[in-house]
Amino acid sequence: MGGAVLQRLIESRFVSPDSVFACDIDQSTLKEIKDRFGVMTSVDNMDGARFGDAIMLAVPPKEARQVLEEIRDSLSESKTLISLVANVSTGLIEETLHSRIGVVRIMPNIPSMVGSGFNVFSFGRHVSSEDKDWLKNLLCVLGEHEEVDEDKIELYSILSAMGPTYFLPFVDTLIQFGIDNGLAYKEARKAVASTLEGTGELVSKVDRPIEDLKNMIGSQPLKRREEQIRSILKEELNITSQQIRLMKEKFVR
Q1: What is residue 250's predicted lDDT score, i.e. its pLDDT?
Q2: CB of 142 closer than 8 Å to CB of 108
Q3: What is the rounded CA–CA span in Å between residue 197 and residue 223?
């Protein structure tokens, strides 16, 4: 996700490559990032922490505390830390850093790559008004954004960060069906993508129950199995929610 955000920020010219310092423990990943974006790189996280005014933390949750402890002596209170890490609260980050550095949590989703993401965020206790304005400008580049209570971020992650994983298998199946029945790949992909985009606009702009919108379509191929599909989806959502809750409790401890 960090790479997707970096790509969007550079392609939109919100940041220039010479103002970015990327860090990773994997040399091959760093080479790919450097070749692709022309940014400075290092395997030493402290190099990036000392370089940047805004530090973006995009690591697995289990590695967050270790990285924060590693870089905290390289951070000053004039910097801002932007966390994309799930289940790790602003309070825990502030506690680990032992400073009054400004912290913001963002839960981005993959459409941010093209400026069409839905990104919820929460500010920590020490973010200045000036930095809040700058961060909101950054979020505008990624797409729609909304400030939410931090205790809701994990729930939003199921709906928005993981949301594309619920849609994309259906998208892929529809595209392949079009190809199998005579459409070129680009024709099928455009048709499905435009339909998905239009459906999103319909849900966003027409304030009617979803069931009413669905029933405006005369032919509904999945109707016979709709309850079965809904049941499977609800089951998986509940399982995911429980897993996130357990993981969050682990990090709070």
Answers
A1: 66
A2: yes
A3: 22
